[in-house]
Every structure is written in C-alpha cells, then in structure tokens.
Design a protein that fits this description.
- By secondary structure, the protein is of the alpha+beta class.
- Strands 1, 2, 3, 4, 5, 6, 7 and 8 form an eight-stranded mixed beta sheet that branches.
- A hairpin with a 2-residue loop joins strand 2 and strand 3.
- It is globular, with a radius of gyration of 21 Å.
Length: 387
C-alpha cells in the first residue's frame, strides 16, 4: 500500500486507464471476436461491430494522445497483440485503422484532425491504408501506380491499386501518388502528394479481389481511380516524401503487434496439448517455454522503441526494422511449431493452428515484407547488393 501511495496521482491514473483499456480489448477479442473468427477466415466476414467496439474501448486512440493525453504507442501495440492473438486478420485491420490515424494526426490539416480524428480514434468512422505501392516505390522496388495532375482547386488522380484493406463505400483510406510535371506531362520524381480519400468520392470504383489466404475478413478491394478530385481538405502532405520519412518508423513499429499476437496465439495452442502430447512433443524444436522467453524479450525491446515512435535517426530506424523482422520470424516459427505440436488435429481446416500458419505467412509478406525489411536493413548498414 505504501508503494502505491508514493506514486504520483497522474501516473496512477494513467496506469489504471491503460490497464482498463487493455482489459476491455482483451475481453472483446476473447469473447466477441472469438465467436466470429471462423466466419472471418472461411466466409470473408468483416467484423465491423467488433471493430467499433474496440474503438469505443480505446484501442484505436492510445497512440494518438488526444484530449491532452500522452501518446502511448506501446498500448496501441499491446491492443493489437490481444486482437491478433485471437484473429490475425482482424489484428491487421486494427493496424490499418491505427496507421490511418497516424496519417491524419501528423498531417496538421484541420479538416483531418479535430472532429474527424476524434471519430476515427473512437471507431465511429473507419479508415484504412493504401501504402503498399508507395512504400515500395520510395524504396526503389516498384513505381507509383497512382498519378495526379494539378488543376484549379487541387489535383485529379487516376490509376489503380490492386488491393487496399479495411475499406468500403463508407470508409476512407490514406495513400500517395506521383504528380505529373505541368510542362512535360511526365512524372516529376521529386513531387508526390499524400491524401485521405473517401471511398464514395466520384471517380472511385471498388472491385472484388481474388480470395486471400487468411485475409478474407479484412474488407480488401482493388481500387480504380479516374480523375478523382483531391482538394486541400484531403491533403496529408504536399510534398509527401519528407512526411513519409518522418512517419516511416511509426508505420513499421505499429505492425509488430500483429506478429506478437500471432506468435502468442501459437504458443497458447502448444500449451493446450502439452498434458496429452508433451511426452513426444519434447523432441520438437521451438518448444513453448523457449519461444515464450524469446517473445517476451522481443516485446520488451518493442516497448522501449515505442516510447519514441517518431525518432528518425538511422540507428533508431534500424532497430525498428530489426524488431519488425523478428516479429515476422517468430510468428512463422511459432505457428509452424504449434502445428507440429498439435499433430493431426492442427491440420484440420477449422483449426486455429492451421489458420495461424496462414496468418504468420501474411505477417511475413505484408508491406514491408521480410525480404523488404532485410533489404532496408542492408542499405542502412551500407552493404552491397547483387545486380
């Protein structure tokens, strides 16, 4: 009791609220989300009601620090982990929503902050992210798929994005496009804009995608844009490249919640059969105790980095890339080991273990993919590449 009384009231209040939010999120994940996880995986069910409940519980606002509260990226990552522990696809959707909030807040655009950001943080409105192609483009892996021409009142944007998640006719998303030079009509390599686009804007068409492994419940569509007007109210950044550099680490760091959750769920599945199969499972590699120690250590490293999510030094970014890569690697190993621990029962299509194997693959390939992360790490270390 004396130790508690010695803590500042502000710290007590903050700690209590953090615990309350995390417990609410955990309850929603283990009860409401668990009831629909098979439908999400096998029927493409998009758990919108669960997402709105998570928003109401505070899962989407922790890292934004609204209402004079401190930004808590660590709490946001922990909330994402609890969701991903039950359903990796929904954990990914939480990341989509969280990072869209980062775009809006960091834009400093009054039309995207204030009431709009408050509604986003509470899950009253829902928004995703279409940054796979732009992120790869800025890394020299792809070329920009969306292009804009300057017009009176803003820009007209055209092009396609093959898949954007956590969107629908009433949703919005953040993305980047190249800008055409007004004189030559060619892409200006030094000018890109970032913007938030409502999906019901004139000129926007949503198209169904092919079926995705483990990701059918993410409300993912292909997007076709034809002369879509982007105004100053939509702009996140103009030019976009310096903005992307400033938020890149936070963008990647937030994703670690997915890997932590999928890995933790896999470890949970190992323990489910330990009393029955431990006698033979002891001969497998990547046993639950060792994996748990590794995961706990990784989580601690992530939480240290989460204290300064907008740091942009090469040393910091390298550490972020490293924990993100490690999150992919341990999710892959834990999911595969859980399948081996469970044996035949884990190979049923309805098995949570079977689903997590597929979810772990997604953690490793979603932008930035594991190979992309290692590529970026090699560049920062000054390593040479094969042609």
């Amino acid at each position: 009791m004396e130790l508690i009384l010695e803590q500042p009231a502000e710290q007590l209040s903050g700690n209590a609220k953090r615990i309350e939010i995390l417990e609410k999120v955990k309850s929603i994940a283990q009860k409401d989300l668990a009831l629909v996880v098979d439908a999400c995986d096998q029927e493409g069910f998009y758990p919108e009601a669960v997402l709105k409940a998570l928003g109401s519980a505070g899962a989407f606002g922790a890292h934004l620090g609204l209402d004079q509260e401190e930004m808590d990226f660590g709490l946001a990552i922990s909330c994402m982990e609890e969701v991903s522990r039950v359903c990796g696809a929904t954990g990914f959707v939480v990341w989509c929503h969280d990072v869209c909030g980062v775009y809006m807040q960091a834009s400093k655009n009054p039309a995207l902050t204030g009431e709009a950001l408050q509604k986003h943080a509470k899950g009253i409105t829902l928004g995703g992210t279409g940054m796979s192609n732009p992120m790869k483009t800025f890394s020299g892996i792809e070329t920009m798929m969306l292009k804009a021409k300057k017009v009176e009142g803003g820009y007209l944007v055209s092009g396609t994005l093959p898949w954007v998640s956590h969107i629908g006719l009433k949703h919005y998303f953040g993305t980047v496009c190249a800008v055409l030079n007004e004189q030559t009509g060619e892409v200006d390599p030094d000018h890109q804009i970032m913007f938030i686009l409502p999906c019901d804007r004139e000129g926007v068409t949503l198209k169904d995608c092919p079926s995705f492994s483990a990701m059918e419940g993410t409300s993912t569509y292909g997007l076709h844009l034809k002369d879509v007007l982007i105004t100053t109210d939509d702009l996140v950044a103009d030019p976009a490249k310096p903005f992307i550099k400033n938020i890149k680490a936070s963008f990647i760091l937030l994703q670690t919640g997915m890997g932590l959750g999928v890995a933790q769920g896999a470890i949970d599945s190992m323990w489910e059969v330990e009393s029955q199969l431990g006698k033979v499972n002891q001969f497998l590699e990547d046993r639950p105790v060792a994996l748990q120690h590794e995961l706990d250590d990784l989580r601690n490293r992530i939480m240290v980095l989460a204290k300064t999510p907008y740091e942009s030094s090469d040393e910091y970014v390298l550490k972020v890339l490293d924990v993100r890569a490690h999150a992919s690697e341990i999710a892959l190993r834990a999911a595969q080991s859980a399948l081996l621990h469970q044996g035949a029962r884990g190979y049923l299509l309805s098995s949570a273990v079977q689903r997590r194997v597929r979810e772990s693959h997604f953690v490793a390939i979603v932008t930035p993919a594991l190979k992309h992360l290692r590529y970026e790490m090699a560049k920062l270390k000054g390593q040479h590449f094969l042609n």
